[in-house]
Amino acid sequence: MRAASRAWLVAAFVVTGVAFAVEERAEPVVVYGDDRLTVRVGDMPLGDLLAELGRQTGAEIRGRVARPHGVTVAFDKVPLPQALHRLLGDQNFTLTYGDGGRLKVIELLGEGGAPVPPARSASPSAPPPTEESGPAARMLAAVERHTSVPLSGVLSETLGAERASLRQLFDLATREEDPVIRSEALRVAIAAVDQDAALTEHVTRALAQMDDEQLTAFVRVIAGERAGDFARQVAAQAHTPMLRTRAQGVVGRLAGGGGR
């Protein structure tokens, strides 16, 4: 079955390549809407494609492409995290959303989750989170440093890879429309936190410095309208006592305040 799937994928890529060869000078298509991306391009520089995505979304593109190359690909209305994974390959990235789910920042990361250094000198950017940045910022920084989680099944098929960053899993768990994929992404992410002693320590230390109101607000920001489902699954599946207990508190506050 796996060999057959690979053969089908190879055939699909060959057919796609032939189609682009036939459509001489076809206009490139890059369309963003509802946090999904449609791309039909032939040998378009990846940097140019990302710049067009930034123009359409109004998002800031931070960092740079680690291995610049031309892109020949076609897909329609793919959720943005999966679409970027297809385009960037092994290069990690993070997505930051603002009010109303508006995409604010696409940050391209290098090895180990560090930002790719700029090609030439640029204005100094904001410093990375420090002890003064607050517990939520430190917890996010710890999550973003965890860049290699093994995948299988539906997650591997969705992302087209055998590994993903923890941030990519949380993006899927909060942004993906398919509830099965959302649930599985969060399950794998929770397990990754539980199994990494250093990450667990960072998370529990940050949680200890946040009261229930702050933590509930944080969950609302990262999970939006799915905050309730997010917190309930963490409360049910986390093995780390602090994580499980604090998630239960968030569930209670969201239920009491009419949150989902």
Can I get a quick summary?
With 260 residues, this protein is α+β, with helices and mostly antiparallel strands. 53% of the residues lie in helices and 17% in strands.
- Percent in helix: 40-55%
Q: Could you state the order of secondary-structure elements as H and E?
A: HEEHEEHEEHEHEHHHHHH
* Uncertain residue ranges: 1-25, 111-132
Number of domains: 2
Number of strands: 8
User: Treating each run of at least 4 consecutive H or I residues as one helix, how many helices?
Assistant: 11
Radius of gyration: 19 Å
Shape descriptor reads elongated
Strand content: 15-25%
Largest sheet: 3 strands, antiparallel
Strand order within the widest beta sheet: 1-2-4
Overall residue-averaged pLDDT value:
77
Structural class: alpha+beta
Distance from N terminus to C terminus (CA atoms, Å) equals 39 Å
Which SSEs are present, and which pair or pack?
Layout: H1 2-22, E1 29-33, E2 36-45, H2 46-57, E3 60-62, E4 70-79, H3 80-88, E5 93-97, E6 103-108, H4 135-145, E7 149-150, H5 153-159, E8 163-164, H6 166-175, H7 179-195, H8 197-208, H9 212-223, H10 227-237, H11 241-256
Parallel strand pairs: 3-6
Antiparallel strand pairs: 1-2, 2-4, 5-6, 7-8
Helix pairs in contact: 4-8, 6-7, 7-10, 9-10, 9-11, 10-11
